[in-house]
Amino acid sequence: MTYRVAVVGATGAVGREMLSTLEEVDFPIKDIYAVASRKSLGVEVSFANRTLRCEDLEQFDFSKVDIVLMSAGGDVSKAWSEKIGKQGPIVIDNSSAWRMDPDVPLIVPEVNPDAVWDCKKKNIIANPNCSTIQMVVALKPLHDAARIKRVVVSTYQSVAGAGKAGMDELWDQTKAVYGLGETEPKKFTKPIAFNVIPHIDVFMDDGQTKEEWKMKVETKKILDPDIEVFATCVRVPVFVGHSESINVEFENPLDEAEAREILREAPGIAVVDKRENGGYVTPKECVGEFDTFISRLRNDPSVPNGLAFWCVSDNLRKGAALNAVQIAQLLDERGVITPVTA
Ligand SMILES: NC(=O)C1=CN([C@@H]2O[C@H](COP(=O)(O)OP(=O)(O)OC[C@H]3O[C@@H](n4cnc5c(N)ncnc54)[C@H](OP(=O)(O)O)[C@@H]3O)[C@@H](O)[C@H]2O)C=CC1
Ligand SMILES: N[C@@H](CC(=O)OP(=O)(O)O)C(=O)O
């Protein structure tokens, strides 16, 4: 079985990773199309040793594809995903536009693969927020073992999470230290070079940011509505790779040695946890990797049945493109879609 796939947002940070991930996992592709805005018409992007010319979203005929990997922002997705779904293909959407819609499944394949069957109402599947994805991949096997009651998480999110413009801003501000670039913040609210900013996405009425709210509500939808989550999301001057310091409180006892063994066996997880210099993973080392890395596992004696750990993943891969491609693989494996090209 082979599929006709369109990548919408193909010129962006996530879209380009989607194309390279489809190639790396050898997804069964019959035809592939790169789609972006009108201004990118004809712009070339690479896929598997060949060049694709971008087509204009407004003019593209979606009835000729089976799967749409959508990564063009929330407003574009709100305007287009439902319309595209009605033309036949399944849309796997990276934005936050559809995640909390009760008729749209929110999927991390290692956690809730069975939800894939719920995509038929709108032909849309939502890809979670990057910070949520890596956290729930780690929490799922621990929850199965000892039932999680509460999670407190602080994130250290790379500028790649703010797209190409975010990466350019860190680069320009870093060069500016040597008098070679721009210094004015545009994408971020304050200078990001040599700084950290405790603010991602918009502020909500209760003082939390929308990024922090997303980590809470998305974890409940994907993993278990009874789990309480409290997040603090911080932007750091790292180009790619999100890190998280996670504290978990379980209902039942689970010590660090048991947790380490469970995580060693868990899908999508790599444990690197040596208590010596360099015996842990940093975001720089996870770039381009598929796994979510766990280090610094410790019992947390400040609460009953407490555990703390460090969690790092490539936000453009597992946090976005890879998870979306794994959802496409799930559609294939479970026979959710039957392409006309079968
Ligand atoms: N970066 C990350 O870690 C994560 C990102 N996401 C989500 O993925 C989406 C894309 O993010 P990212 O790749 O980082 O962003 P970028 O800014 O790097 O890329 C945006 C892409 O969307 C396209 N686009 C924008 N407006 C339109 C339009 N009107 N019609 C067609 N295409 C359009 C752009 O095309 P053009 O070049 O023609 O303007 C470009 O290809 C966002 O929704 C983001 O929230 C989700 C999880 C993680
Ligand atoms: N907000 C994330 C990336 C992102 O685009 O998230 P969302 O798809 O939930 O808006 C970050 O900046 O790291």
List the helices and strands and how they pair.
Blueprint: E1 3-8, H1 13-24, E2 29-36, E3 44-47, E4 50-53, E5 55-56, E6 67-70, H2 74-86, E7 90-93, E8 124-126, H3 130-146, E9 148-157, H4 163-176, H5 210-222, E10 228-235, E11 242-250, H6 256-265, E12 269-271, H7 283-286, E13 292-299, E14 306-313, H8 317-333
Parallel strand pairs: 1-2, 1-6, 2-5, 6-7, 7-8, 9-10, 12-13
Antiparallel strand pairs: 3-4, 9-11, 11-14, 13-14
Helix pairs in contact: 1-8, 3-5, 3-8
The site of aspartyl phosphate has 12 residues, from helix 5.
Key features?
single chain; 342 residues; alpha/beta; Rossmann fold; Dihydrodipicolinate Reductase, domain 2; 2 domains; 6-stranded parallel sheet; 6-stranded mixed sheet; 14 strands; 29% helix; globular; binds NADPH dihydro-nicotinamide-adenine-dinucleotide phosphate; binds aspartyl phosphate
Bound molecules: NADPH dihydro-nicotinamide-adenine-dinucleotide phosphate, aspartyl phosphate
CATH architecture of the largest domain: 2-Layer Sandwich
Distance between the termini: 5 Å
Largest sheet: 6 strands, parallel
Structural class: alpha/beta
Pfam family, one: Semialdhyde_dhC
Binding site for NADP(+): 11-14, 39-40, 315
Binding site for substrate: 157, 235
Binding site for phosphate: 99
Please give a structural write-up.
This protein has 342 residues and is an alpha/beta fold. It has two domains: 3-128 and 320-333, Rossmann fold; 131-315, 2-Layer Sandwich (Dihydrodipicolinate Reductase, domain 2). The protein contains eight helices and 14 strands. The chain has helices at residues 13-24, 74-86, 130-146, 163-176, 210-222, 256-265, 283-286, 317-333, and strands at residues 3-8, 29-36, 44-47, 50-53, 55-56, 67-70, 90-93, 124-126, 148-157, 228-235, 242-250, 269-271, 292-299, 306-313. A six-stranded parallel β-sheet has the order 5-2-1-6-7-8, sandwiched between helices. Strands 10-9-11-14-13-12 form a six-stranded mixed β-sheet. α7 (283-286) links the parallel β12 (269-271) and β13 (292-299). α3 packs across α5 (210-222) and α3 (130-146) crosses α8. The longest helix has 17 residues, at 130-146. The protein is globular. The relative contact order is 0.16. The structure holds NADPH dihydro-nicotinamide-adenine-dinucleotide phosphate (NDP) and aspartyl phosphate. Aspartyl phosphate (PHD) binds at residues 95-96, 129-130, 157, 161-162, 200-201, 211, 214, 315. It is an enzyme of class 1 (oxidoreductase). The active site is at 130 (acyl-thioester intermediate), 242 (proton acceptor). Belongs to the aspartate-semialdehyde dehydrogenase family. One of its GO terms (molecular function) is NAD binding. Homodimer.
